[in-house]
Automatic annotation (TrEMBL):
One of its GO terms (molecular function) is metal ion binding. This is 4-hydroxy-3-methylbut-2-enyl diphosphate reductase. It comes from Flaviaesturariibacter aridisoli. Pathway: Isoprenoid biosynthesis; isopentenyl diphosphate biosynthesis via DXP pathway; isopentenyl diphosphate from 1-deoxy-D-xylulose 5-phosphate: step 6/6; Isoprenoid biosynthesis; dimethylallyl diphosphate biosynthesis; dimethylallyl diphosphate from (2E)-4-hydroxy-3-methylbutenyl diphosphate: step 1/1. PANTHER family: 4-HYDROXY-3-METHYLBUT-2-ENYL DIPHOSPHATE REDUCTASE, CHLOROPLASTIC (PTHR31619:SF5). Pfam families: LYTB. InterPro entries: LytB/IspH (IPR003451). Its cofactor is [4Fe-4S] cluster. Keywords: 4Fe-4S, Iron, Iron-sulfur, Metal-binding, Oxidoreductase. The lineage of its organism: Bacteria, Pseudomonadati, Bacteroidota, Chitinophagia, Chitinophagales. It comes from the Bacteria. Its EC number is 1.17.7.4.
Length: 408
């Protein structure tokens, strides 16, 4: 796989050595067991896969190169390039400015832009309307486009099924940048509708079966369907694609459910199901798959708690948290400073959108066993920082350097 030029301060020598050793021992990525870092009174199990994915490294590489190649120019990011506060703060410090916040609200007006400005498209991609608007100003976004190829793959897949006459159901968070971008690209080719979760999918299915009257659809799915969507006509042949960072099992369950609804409604057999339901199994991103499967592998270890590191608005990170929460006490943090002490942690509840303090998060007995992973936009240096902070609570532990030596 292509390698990227990523600032060295995002790397961790310890984690790079572990990843290298695991990769060499398991080139086909069949082994999803975690890596044990045994410090004595503290045992840390690192997930087999975590941290920067292809798309994030690509975006960081392009963004910092853009800054270096354009001295004196105004450089804007359409919105957060990736959902990591440290990376975005570093870009701001390098003089890059945001045009929009993550919800699409304006920070700098497009009217203030000129053809001399540079605008970076984020890894999630953007809508056709924004691309056209920037092109109209004379800004050549293709020069500084960090859209991940795995997001583009979903767009291509949508285009493919649209050409075969299917409408497109997008499983994603309706306000997430990537889903808005994918929706925009899908809607150019076919009637499209976004479903956020299984609950919404079940409601959508009621319009397929006729359990619900068409007019209610337009209120219930307001803002989530393409212009001119005809609920009676456009749900007769469908295919499902997803925001690449959704929970893989959720997307699969949604696709399976809609397929079963179509089979029942039209009395389909195995041989003719494709007439009504497009096969789109491969639109999940490799990193999402790897990181989620690695969490499942990590959860096979008997541990006291899990810590997941990443940006609080990061979709892929919140899904890793969701998986861990089902098995053991889980703490979602965005930096090591959130480990306030051996007894107290400040962590994020993504269900409520609030940070909260929990006392007694580490066990009173030793060794303490901690499962550790991070999202696809989280620098490995942050994960190493979390390990170092945990170690500071266990005097007498082996040092990071001693344990790192085992992976050289
Ligand atoms: S999570 Fe997947 S789709 Fe998103 S940027 Fe990373 S590689 Fe690309």
């Amino acid at each position: 796989m292509k390698t990227f030029d990523v600032p060295v301060n995002y790397r961790s020598p310890l984690i790079s050595a572990i990843k290298k050793q695991r990769k060499e021992a398991d080139r086909m990525k069949k082994d999803f067991t975690p890596t044990l870092l045994d410090f004595g009174p503290l045992r840390v199990y690192l997930a087999r896969h975590f941290g920067f994915c292809y798309g994030v490294e690509n975006a960081i590489d392009i963004a910092f190169r853009t800054v270096a190649e354009n001295p004196g120019k105004r450089i804007f990011l359409l919105s957060e390039m990736i959902h990591n506060p440290q990376v975005n703060a570093d870009l701001l410090a390098a003089g890059v400015r945001f045009l929009q916040d993550t919800k699409g609200n304006s920070i700098v007006s497009f009217d203030d832009l000129t053809a001399d400005d540079v605008v970076l498209i984020p890894a999630f991609g953007t809508t056709l309307a924004i691309e056209q608007r920037l092109a109209g100003i004379g800004i050549r976004t293709e020069l500084y486009n960090t859209t991940c190829p795995f997001v583009e793959k979903v767009w291509n897949r949508s285009e493919g099924i649209a050409q075969k006459g299917y409408s497109i159901v997008i499983h994603g968070k309706p306000r997430h940048e990537e889903t808005r971008a994918t929706f925009s690209h899908a809607a150019k080719d076919a009637p499209s509708v976004v479903v956020e979760d299984m609950e919404q999918t079940i409601e959508l299915a009621k319009y397929i079966t006729g359990e619900k009257d068409a007019p209610y659809f337009y209120e219930e799915f307001k803002g989530q369907y393409s212009e001119g969507f005809d609920v009676a006509r456009d749900l007769q042949r469908i295919g499902v694609v997803n925001q690449t960072t959704m929970l893989a099992s959720d997307t699969q369950a949604i696709a399976d459910y809609l397929k079963s609804v179509m089979v029942k409604k039209y009395g389909l057999t195995e041989a003719d199901t494709r007439e009504r339901f497009a096969d789109t199994r491969d639109t999940l991103c490799y990193a999402t798959n790897d990181n989620q499967t690695a969490v499942t592998g990590m959860l096979g270890v008997n541990a006291d708690l899990a810590i997941v590191v990443g940006g609080y608005n990061s979709s892929n990170t919140s899904h890793l948290v969701e998986l861990c929460e089902e098995a053991l006490p889980t703490y979602f943090i965005n930096e090591e400073a959130k480990l306030l002490s051996k007894n107290t942690i400040l962590h994020y509840n993504f269900h409520t959108g609030l940070e909260l303090v929990t006392e007694g998060y580490l066990p009173t007995t030793e060794p303490a066993t901690v499962l550790l992973t991070s999202g696809a936009s989280c620098p490995d240096a942050l994960v190493e920082g979390v390990i170092r902070r945990l170690l500071s609570f266990y005097p007498g532990s082996k040092s990071i350097e001693e344990v790192a030596a085992l992976f050289q």
